[in-house]
From TrEMBL:
<feature type="signal peptide">
    <location>
        <begin position="1"/>
        <end position="19"/>
    </location>
</feature>
<dbReference type="Pfam" id="PF04187">
    <property type="entry name" value="Cofac_haem_bdg"/>
</dbReference>
<keyword id="KW-0732">Signal</keyword>
<dbReference type="InterPro" id="IPR016773">
    <property type="entry name" value="Fe3_uptake_reg_CjrA_prd"/>
</dbReference>
<protein>
    <submittedName>
        <fullName>Chain X</fullName>
    </submittedName>
</protein>
<dbReference type="InterPro" id="IPR007314">
    <property type="entry name" value="Cofac_haem-bd_dom"/>
</dbReference>
<feature type="domain" description="Haem-binding uptake Tiki superfamily ChaN">
    <location>
        <begin position="49"/>
        <end position="241"/>
    </location>
</feature>
Amino acid sequence: MKKFITLLFLLIFTGCAINEPLRNRTLNDEKIAIIDTKTNKSIPYSTFIDKIQKHNIILLGEYHEIPNHMAMEVRIFKSLNELQNLDVVFEMLSSDKQAKINEAKAKQILPNELKNAIDWDEKWDYRNYGELVESVFYSNSNLIAGNLSKDEINTIFNGALPIYGKFSTTDEIKKALKTFVATSHKLENDEKNSALLDKFIQVQLYKDRRMADKLVHSKTKSLLIAGQIHASKTVGVYNHILDFDLKKSVVSVMLGDEKSFDLLNAQDAIKAFCDYYIVFK
């Protein structure tokens, strides 16, 4: 488990390079490698789409600050949507906004009105996400709000009952999340901050459970757009899906960058982390 935790942090915290936000970003296939972690070999994009579309649930993990990732998500969504309509679950939208999304769809809101109509949270840069959100919204697929509301987060933080699961709340996962949360919130992982970190962990677990709930109860193929830690097989939504005990197949895809290319040599660890890893060289 220690090796997996180390890899998790190397993968998540090495992707800090920020590109200029752009729509209609062109991706150069010669500078993209799609790695099948079972074999540690690169596969063509068409083969990749053929493989992942066979699964009921597709987890797609990103770095939130890299527009190339959103551009790749647009491309993957459009490729999958050509084959079948999807439920696309967004970490960036809280579940209480679903009614606004449905209303905007019914009113056929124009693209320049969509951001306000669905009450998009400004903490997510819409210059990065706009093309992806609009690609889903104006397709025959469904835009699904998959995260907790601010009121729900406050309730959990102020003392909601802990969440339980056979696969998703093990001591190993909680330990990994505690290290991740401490790092991301710039807190020392010590006795002084232990109670505070435990609250953050519960919020993280509830977020993953909510997204898993949306995915497993979809009546069609479902796609998750979320940060890497949520989409990982080691500590994220994947384990909550297992706790629902549904007979749906799940595949995990991670988006990385040139800094994480060498990490693919840790084959056993990355195979546990995800099924496919896309590197922008």
